[in-house]
Amino acid sequence: MVLSQHTDESYARALFHDGSSGLAYLLKDRVGDLEDLVRALQEVASGGSVVDPLIIDTLVARQQTRAASPLSSLTRRELDVLREMAQGKTNAGIEQALFLSESTVEKHVNAIFAKLGLSAAPVHRRVVAVLAFLENAPPPDLLDSAQPRS
Q1: Element (H, E) at 8
Q2: Neighbour tally for 20: CB within 10 Å
Q3: Whole-angstrom distance between the N-terminal and C-terminal Cα of the chain?
Q4: Which of 2-6, 44-48, 67-71, 84-88 has the lowest mean pLDDT?
Q5: Torsion of CA 145, 2, 57, 33, to 10 degrees
Q6: Distance between CA atoms of 85 and 127, rounded to whole angstroms?
Q7: Which is it for the CA torsion 11, 136, 74, 99, positive or negative?
Q8: pTM of the complete model beyond 0.85
Q9: Domains, the chain, ordered by start
Q10: For residue range 59-75, what is the model confidence (pLDDT) as tens digits?
């Protein structure tokens, strides 16, 4: 059982990483009285879970933000390529890191630019794409369950 003063979604995500059975995340200032706390402890002891509604709201809001992210339209492989771009790698470096051909990397880079609306941008598209990745990147554990590679 976690009693916290924070509604930070990263704490809840870490706690519930392997499921919610037998776990609780409550906010200190919202635990009404001792009976509420005892009920929550009993629920957790019996294998249930108790989560403060504000924590659930925070998790749902974050998921909606991720869904609205410009990165949500990228495939898993495009995210892999963009991650390598974010590390400063050239196309040749991406080819080596991901074991892809030159034409495949070029195809993915062009798809990334198109999906992020950078096809005709007058700025350095690679930099803007990396900035979008860094601003909107899901945590590494979510990338593992992202869209299938293509």
Answers
A1: none
A2: 16
A3: 41
A4: 67-71
A5: 160
A6: 9
A7: negative
A8: no
A9: 2-68 (3.40.50.2300), 70-143 (1.10.10.10)
A10: 777 666 655 677 888 89
